[in-house]
């Protein structure tokens, strides 16, 4: 197997600040900081948090606050949002928040933007004080955000201070083809959520690449895919560790989003789900890389050949912190060609 396909590829981490069974919120946040420091030492490019609300298993609701906490506890790794759900916020407030972060941690903050609510319909209406199906112009709000960040906005009656003139790269996030067209049209980097919405990954990437228009921020298309990764020294151990993730995704189908549970015997999975639920979970996890390092390297090589992405972002829903860090260590070795 050649390692040339991994040359120059960046590798990063997505964190939901997943709450593990038995942990307090303070312990959850401490885990995130510990993982980010480990990722920085391993050469990961960026460490992103995703905005979610009203979920007992996810503690990343105040996304910008967590970004500041982790950026302040690290030195070089880029920290950002994967993403901020822009319909939930005024572009001015986001410009001020990320302008503050970008001023505190220069050249280290990313702002990934999504158009989904990141929660259920009732909670979304509570956040927005508007119906969830009300018309929303994602592009116009991104453009407004760009305006607030620009130095040219100094003459405007409404200014983002802090924010104006601060370098905070914008990303467009997507889980379908819609945002691929927008990212291409606006000349922005594109991140696809293949870790839970794999169906349109290849089509979206093709749309983005084929329709890309250069911009002041980006001259050529730059695509990143987020995938699930559970790596271990043996295939058997990886399968064991993956049971926590499978049970968590089953909770999405059963509306039981409990904290992440410890791993358990693989044979017990059969008693947890119906055939329909098993199919649904495994479809959502089509891009889950589970196994020992040679297995993951082979699957990742095929994935990279098929997608042509410039960066892979890994999310590892592993209960044991040491096992989680070891998984990220093995993934780093795969991504740096240490096969």
Describe what you observe in this structure.
- This protein has helices at residues 25-41, 63-72, 91-104, 121-128, 138-149, 178-186, 201-211, 235-254, 275-284, 293-307, 321-335, and strands spanning 10-15, 46-49, 78-85, 109-114, 170-174, 190-192, 223-231, 288-291, 311-315.
- The chain has eleven helices and nine strands.
- Strands 1-2-3-4-5-6-7-9 form an eight-stranded parallel beta barrel, surrounded by seven helices.
- Helix content is 42%, strand content 15%.
- Helix 3 (91-104) packs across helix 5 and helix 6 (178-186) packs parallel to helix 7.
- The mean pLDDT is 94.
**Main sheet, how many strands, which sense, barrel?**
8 strands, parallel, barrel
Mean pLDDT: 94
Instruction: Name the poorly predicted regions.
Output: none
**What is the N-to-C order of secondary-structure elements (H for helix, E for strand)?**
EHEHEHEHHEHEHEHHEHEH
List keywords for this structure.
339 residues, 9 strands, eight-stranded parallel β-barrel, alpha/beta
What is the topology?
Blueprint: E1 10-15, H1 25-41, E2 46-49, H2 63-72, E3 78-85, H3 91-104, E4 109-114, H4 121-128, H5 138-149, E5 170-174, H6 178-186, E6 190-192, H7 201-211, E7 223-231, H8 235-254, H9 275-284, E8 288-291, H10 293-307, E9 311-315, H11 321-335
Parallel strand pairs: 1-2, 1-9, 2-3, 3-4, 4-5, 5-6, 6-7, 7-8, 7-9
Helix pairs in contact: 1-11, 3-5, 6-7, 8-9, 10-11
């Amino acid at each position: 197997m050649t390692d040339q396909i991994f040359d120059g590829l960046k590798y990063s981490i997505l964190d939901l600040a997943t709450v593990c069974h038995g942990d307090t919120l303070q312990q959850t946040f401490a885990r995130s900081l510990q993982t980010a420091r480990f990722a920085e030492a391993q050469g990961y490019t960026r460490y992103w948090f995703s905005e979610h609300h009203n979920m007992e298993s996810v503690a990343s609701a105040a996304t910008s606050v967590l970004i500041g906490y982790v950026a302040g506890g690290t030195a070089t790794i880029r920290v950002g949002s994967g993403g901020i759900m822009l319909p939930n916020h005024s572009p001015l407030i986001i410009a001020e928040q990320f302008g503050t972060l970008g001023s505190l941690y220069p050249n280290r903050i990313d702002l990934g933007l999504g158009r989904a609510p990141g929660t259920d319909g009732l909670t979304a209406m509570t956040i927005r004080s508007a119906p969830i199906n009300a018309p929303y112009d994602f592009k116009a709000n991104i453009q407004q955000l760009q305006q607030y960040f620009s130095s040219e906005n100094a003459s405007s009656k409404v200014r983002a201070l802090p924010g104006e003139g601060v370098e905070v790269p914008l990303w467009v996030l997507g889980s379908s083809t819609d945002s691929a067209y927008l990212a291409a049209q606006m000349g922005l980097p594109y991140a696809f959520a293949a870790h839970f919405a794999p169906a349109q990954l290849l089509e979206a990437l093709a749309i983005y690449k084929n329709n890309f228009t250069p911009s002041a921020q980006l001259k050529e298309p730059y695509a990143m895919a987020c995938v699930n990764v559970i790596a271990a020294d043996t295939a058997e151990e990886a399968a064991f560790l993956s049971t926590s993730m499978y049970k968590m995704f089953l909770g999405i189908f059963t509306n039981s989003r409990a904290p992440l549970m410890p791993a358990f015997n693989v044979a017990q999975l059969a008693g947890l789900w119906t055939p329909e639920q098993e199919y649904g979970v495994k479809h959502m996890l089509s891009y889950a890389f589970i196994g020992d390092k040679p297995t993951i390297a082979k699957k990742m090589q095929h994935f990279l050949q098929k997608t042509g992405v410039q960066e892979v972002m890994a999310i590892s829903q592993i209960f044991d912190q040491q096992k989680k860090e070891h998984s990220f260590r093995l993934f780093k070795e795969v991504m740096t060609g240490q096969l």
